[in-house]
Amino acid sequence: MTKPNIDQFETLLNAHKDQVYRQMLRVCGNREDAEDTLVEAILNAYKHYQSLEDKERFQAWLAIIGRRICGRIKRKEALLPVTDLADLYPAPPAEPDFQDSTLVTKVHQALEILTHEERDVFELRDIQGLSGPETSQRLNISLAAQKSRLHRARAKIRANIDYCLDCEAN
């Protein structure tokens, strides 16, 4: 494989990176993911630049690479159990009183929106810490059904908590 023309790549990149970054902001939803996505997209584009037949389509090509990377980031985040989200945020400086905590109230409200089947799977997997096969066996459902219910439950809880926190912030 021949080495890409660095000057030509750099010229195209400088001409289009701002537009692609703005697209990544819309696709990824936040500045940090958009920046990470753009950097990774640029690296991937550089590696495969020789395979781009129509250099006039560089911006669209870079944007497609970026959207795929952003989609991969979002899928990884969507698969995180709600309990693992706590690892992503620093602990509060003082010991909170969970009896009066607004967040605990929001989590309990979020659990209420789940169907009975989703709540059972969520409680066994994310609260009690059972494995997928153990949960499937206990509920007498297939592993695929357990995974599907758990995914829907996590998505509903995450969306409900995000919505509640957004409302409080405004």
Write up what this structure looks like.
With 170 residues, the protein is mainly alpha-helical. The protein has two domains: 6-79, Rna Polymerase Sigma Factor, Chain: A; 82-169, Arc Repressor Mutant, subunit A. Helix content is 71%, strand content 0%. The chain is built from seven helices and no strands. α2 crosses α3 (58-79) and α5 (116-127) runs antiparallel to α6. It is elongated. The mean pLDDT is 80.
Q: Supply the CATH class of the largest domain.
A: Mainly Alpha
Could you say what the CATH architecture of the largest domain is?
A: Orthogonal Bundle
Beta-strand content bin: under 5%
Query: In angstroms, what separates the terminal alpha carbons?
Result: 54 Å
E-strand count: 0
Report the biggest beta sheet as strand number plus sense, adding barrel if it closes: none
What value does the average pLDDT take? Answer: 80
Note poorly predicted spans.
Answer: none
Estimated helix fraction: over 70%
Q: Under CATH, the topology of the largest domain is which?
A: Arc Repressor Mutant, subunit A
Tally of individual helices: 7
* Structural class label: mainly alpha
Count of structural domains: 2
